[in-house]
Design goal:
The chain has 4 helices and 8 strands, in the order βααββββββαβα. The chain has an 8-stranded antiparallel β-sheet with strand order 2-3-4-5-6-7-1-8. The radius of gyration is 15 Å and the shape is globular. It is of the alpha+beta class and 159 residues long.
Amino acid sequence: MRDAQVTILVADVGPATTFERISDFAAYPDLIDVVRSVSVRPVGPGEDHSDWEVFFRNGILRWTEVDRFDADALTITFEQLEGDFAEFAGTWVVTPHGTGSAVAFTAGFDFGIPSLAGLLDPIAERVLKETIVRAVAGLFDRVDVVGDDAALALAAGVR
């Protein structure tokens, strides 16, 4: 399984507000051109199912995930229920950082095609990180990506 991780600093927005905004997955298609659609269905307190369609290479990736929101811990966990990945799961964690917040996104994924993993996995990792940076940059006025030159360059180009 391949991992993708990115940490984004959000200036002058507190953790609770940051958590609330990143939790609004239904808004992502308006923020990111590669996200074709997201449909969110509440299934219980702190838990949603969301259907995602994301442009990838020359096609569309589709999956349904369970999203669990813990507003007290400022954490979102997600796991694919069905879809194009063999495995896809991860977390969003929001923490205080100065007068703002830090958003740490981590995901593990596997397409289930070992013969193409060397080709697809690095591309998927880059696209996933870029998508997360674009989403967070679309939600907040000032963001900075920590320790990832490619994502940082992308964030600079988003504005």
